[in-house]
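Narrative of accomplishments. A recurring question from our advisory board has been how the design workflow behaves on a single, concrete structure rather than in aggregate. To address it, we present the structure tokens for one chain from the evaluation set, followed by the sequence designed for it. No filtering or post-editing was applied between the two.
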């Protein structure tokens, strides 16, 4: 005997509705705004992350944000790892630098971040320490709402392209 059962008459039990979707969307938005206000004037995007290449031959032409800056990159930028963590820079002591170019790109990224950084004093009543912002600078400080510093990475086109080798591909992240 060939099984040919018609058991499709009780499907209503397994229907899942999504009428709560717009309310959840609104709730997530409210939470994001609340979190941004709580951490202000720190950046909404979280700590600054390095530029890294994806692993394996298939994806190594892509660039993404890494976990944290290496100790070598921090040293080149003139930063102490413990201090860097306190001012919104992610540090990964396990990561190793495999090329001079990556060190240069990430060091430049750190220097640019450092130049735009406004340090609020830990103790308001005491005298300002070196690097801490004055009252006027603190009033001007705004919270970065979008992504961190946009950066360009120069990639020479592969040799199998039949074009002038001095043409470069600009990747914007």
């Amino acid at each position: 005997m060939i099984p040919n059962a018609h058991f499709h008459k009780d499907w209503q039990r397994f229907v899942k509705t999504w009428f709560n979707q717009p309310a959840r969307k609104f709730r997530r938005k409210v939470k994001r705004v609340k979190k941004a206000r709580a951490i202000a004037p720190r950046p909404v995007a979280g700590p600054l992350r390095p530029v890294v290449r994806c692993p394996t031959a298939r994806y190594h032409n892509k660039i993404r944000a890494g976990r944290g800056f290496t100790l070598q990159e921090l040293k080149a930028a003139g930063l102490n790892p413990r201090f860097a963590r306190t001012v919104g820079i992610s540090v990964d002591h396990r990561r190793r630098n495999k090329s001079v170019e990556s060190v240069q790109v990430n060091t430049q990224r750190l220097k640019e971040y450092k130049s735009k950084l406004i340090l609020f004093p830990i103790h308001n009543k005491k005298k300002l320490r070196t690097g801490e912002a004055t009252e006027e600078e603190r009033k001007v400080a705004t919270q970065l709402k979008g992504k961190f510093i946009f950066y360009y990475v120069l990639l020479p086109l592969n040799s199998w392209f039949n074009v002038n080798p001095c043409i470069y591909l600009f990747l914007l992240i």
